[in-house]
């Protein structure tokens, strides 16, 4: 049996004084400076004794460790708890997008507490080889090869462990990608890359990799996995969005959304909740006042998302066709406002003066489109917070630059269309540079393992 199954068998459904291990472990994972028993008991509304009992079993399993005691005041020193950085490791692999299809894999190895596994320094990159199309089988073979190399890295580091009785174990591997992923069954329903990956549809990547590699593999959509990571380690963001929030992330090629309610990531029917990028908004944007009005819109001017089919008349312009960096660049190119290629085009456009009206308008419309998506979340679910990850060029604060129009469009749309009077203090915008976002996706993939573990443990409480 692998380590994942061992832990689930030991802890699944066990309840100590009404407290499940899933709740205790989550509380320890989330805790900031001093995760001491007393604070945890207060948070979980149980006695410190109940926490101690629940922690005991988790400690026996090597999941929880006691840190250096701290003496805050005279008396017994407090002993902070954390999830183990070393007894278990988790592999995370993100399938990273290129312009039209995935370009590479990014892999990482972390401990349960989210820190890099001892001796593993930086995320590793694997360039995907493809023929004309990257078929599902070709991708699986490359994932297999890459994850095997990460497992070998882990085994090398683990064999060097001084104490052979307490040698680390690999808890599992998480995999994320852009698209519709059935998290429960590890099946990729469809991807965010359109036709070039059509052949991936309904492939059971999770079970197939699990069978080949002999470790538990958990798959999810990229943004849902970012939500899992934020939920289990809010301190990475220096700001805890609490138990009820929506996360929206604008990645190069699209816009994704995820929901966390009552401390769990909610994926909706068939894992399709939070499709923030695929709300039709072309009609809203066409109706926006345009003082220049040099080129009135015709239906042909509406930019389309890869999932729309103009020939069937279903193309209305989805959010991500306006709001994603690649879409903004494509629109600017089509209007001959910029040329060339490269990762800096968005930053170049964003840094144009605000007076460059054609460029500003594209940014403004992108912001309105994203705002419409956020308004949908507010009006239907009214989450406590909305966390928004944006590339720096779209989080531009300087009013004299064109890129700031994105923020303007976003806040204007929310102010006009959200039923909640003032949402501004519940919208947390994080500017995340591209390279950092990719590393974050790999770490988030690893967090899928812990998220899955806690879900499995929480199932079927058997009571004691
Ligand atoms: Zn779409």
List keywords for this structure.
Arc Repressor Mutant, subunit A; binds zinc ion; five-stranded mixed β-sheet; Nucleotidyltransferase, domain 5; alpha/beta; single chain
What's the short story on this structure?
Helices cover 38% and strands 19% of the residues. With 464 residues, it is of the alpha/beta class.
What does this molecule look like?
The protein is of the alpha/beta class. It has 3 domains: 81 residues, Arc Repressor Mutant, subunit A, CATH 1.10.10.10; 143 residues, Nucleotidyltransferase, domain 5 (2-Layer Sandwich); 188 residues, ATPase, nucleotide binding domain (Nucleotidyltransferase, domain 5, 2-Layer Sandwich), CATH 3.30.420.40. The protein is 38% helix and 19% strand. The strands form 5 sheets. A 5-stranded mixed beta sheet has the order 7-6-5-8-11. Strands 14-13-12-15-16 form a 5-stranded mixed beta sheet, sandwiched between helices. A two-stranded antiparallel sheet has the order 1-2. A hairpin with a 2-residue loop joins strand 12 and strand 13. Helix 2 runs antiparallel to helix 14. It is globular, with a radius of gyration of 23 Å. The model has no long low-confidence stretch (mean pLDDT 88). The site of zinc ion has 5 residues, from loops.
């Amino acid at each position: 049996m692998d380590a994942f199954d061992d832990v689930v068998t030991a802890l699944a459904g066990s309840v100590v004084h009404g407290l499940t291990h899933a709740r205790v472990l989550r509380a320890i994972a989330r805790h900031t400076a001093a995760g001491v028993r007393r604070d945890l008991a207060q948070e979980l509304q149980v006695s410190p004794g109940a926490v101690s009992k629940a922690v005991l079993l988790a400690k026996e399993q090597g999941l929880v460790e006691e840190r250096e005691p701290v003496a805050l005041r005279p008396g017994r020193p407090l002993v902070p708890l954390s999830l183990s950085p070393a007894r278990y490791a988790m592999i995370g692999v993100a399938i990273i997008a290129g312009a039209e299809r995935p370009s590479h894999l990014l892999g990482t190895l972390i401990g349960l507490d989210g820190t890099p596994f001892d001796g593993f320094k930086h995320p590793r990159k694997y360039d995907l080889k493809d023929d004309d199309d990257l078929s599902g089988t070709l991708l699986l073979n490359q994932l297999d090869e890459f994850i095997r190399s990460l497992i070998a890295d882990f085994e090398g580091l683990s064999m060097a462990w001084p104490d052979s009785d307490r040698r680390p174990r690999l808890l599992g591997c998480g995999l994320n990608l852009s698209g519709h992923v059935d998290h429960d069954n590890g099946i990729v329903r469809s991807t965010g890359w359109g036709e070039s990956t059509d052949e991936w549809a309904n492939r059971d990547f999770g079970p197939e990799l699990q069978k080949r590699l002999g470790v538990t593999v958990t798959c999810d959509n990229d943004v849902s996995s970012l939500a899992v990571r934020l939920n289990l380690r809010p301190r990475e963001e220096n700001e805890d969005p609490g138990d009820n929030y929506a996360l929206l992330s604008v990645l190069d090629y699209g816009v994704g959304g995820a929901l966390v309610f009552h401390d769990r990531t909610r994926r909706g029917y068939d894992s399709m909740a939070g499709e923030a990028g695929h709300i039709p908004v072309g009609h809203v944007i066409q109706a926006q006042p345009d003082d220049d009005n040099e080129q009135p819109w015709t239906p042909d001017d509406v930019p389309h998302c890869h999932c729309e089919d103009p020939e069937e008349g279903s193309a209305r312009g989805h959010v991500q066709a306006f709001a994603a960096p690649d879409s903004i660049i494509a629109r600017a190119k089509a209007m001959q406002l910029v040329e060339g290629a490269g990762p800096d085009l968005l930053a170049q456009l964003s840094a144009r003066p605000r007076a460059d009206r054609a460029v500003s308008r594209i940014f403004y419309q992108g912001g309105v489109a994203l705002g419409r998506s956020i308004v949908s979340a507010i009006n239907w679910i009214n989450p406590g917070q909305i966390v928004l990850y944006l590339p720096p060029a779209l989080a531009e604060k300087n009013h004299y630059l064109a890129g700031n129009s994105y923020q303007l469009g976003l806040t204007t749309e929310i102010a006009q269309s959200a039923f909640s009077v003032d949402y501004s203090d519940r919208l947390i915008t994080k500017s995340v540079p591209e390279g950092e976002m990719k590393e974050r996706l790999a770490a988030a993939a690893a967090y899928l393992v812990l998220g899955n573990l806690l879900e499995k443990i929480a199932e079927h409480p058997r009571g004691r």
